[in-house]
């Protein structure tokens, strides 16, 4: 406070303070009520519920807003930067006000508890390692992330108890599926011939490799013969032989979990094509033919897409809810530039913001 009155002599400083206090007192008792009201809100931009937003708050928020701007959605870039920052402060104050009504409190102990929980979930015991991991995953500095943590905790709890949960429609799910077929993976139908060596000798390995190479040459020349060979004694896997080598539709992910070598071979072969000879995890020499590939059916990924869309819409739903709550939280605006830009009548002090 003393920085307002730079002075090296404490007695002069005290006299200045007394003069300032006397002038302020005389101004208050002599001014008309309207002037007193105006002066009492000097440098106050807005009030939200019981909270006030001052020019000092605005100055502090500018740097944070600029750092967070690339993470913020639904920003109205047609507005001036000042209006956007004031909206940012009002929205945060609305969240604080409603959190207080709902007895959602975030103190230092709660923050540390949240960090401990996240470290445990991530399997990290070192705080420095955790800070680096947070910076890598969030794209923020740790200090910025930590300053946002109280808001994020309140947001999460309000979304659980107050914000309507709007599930995606069937139309939304189908639209996402149609636009992202390459992201949902694919299913494969193929035939496989597997030949197991009788022993680990070099001569046996050489013999089996030559036989597999001969089979590949035969079926590559006549792909229609693959099922005949796969169902013959030359296919030493009895289970495959009984099905003429057929592996019916299986997802690429499930195939990868079962046999990485087969998954890798299948991924490199077009429909109707025959693979090179390769060895699988059971040390068998294999050849396969891809009968078909298709995107993973919608029914198999419907729930996953629905969950993804829910997460994507969470922030949109929350921001919409905050805007709606402005009608239930008393808000007063005292910033002339903001009132002019947002076409707020001068004679209205309390109103509902769009």
UniProtKB/TrEMBL annotation:
Pfam families with a match to the protein in the record: Rotamase_2, SurA_N_3
Organism for this UniProt entry: Leptospira semungkisensis
Keyword Cytoplasm in annotation: no
Start and end residues of each PpiC domain: 168-302
InterPro entries xrefs: OMP_Chaperone_SurA, PPIase_dom_sf, PPIase_PpiC, Put_pepPro_cis-trans_isomerase, Trigger_fact/SurA_dom_sf
Segments crossing the lipid bilayer: none
Keywords annotated in UniProt: Isomerase, Signal
Source species, domain of life: Bacteria
GO molecular function, one term: peptidyl-prolyl cis-trans isomerase activity
Protein name: Putative peptidyl-prolyl cis-trans isomerase
Protein's UniProt keywords contain RNA-binding: no
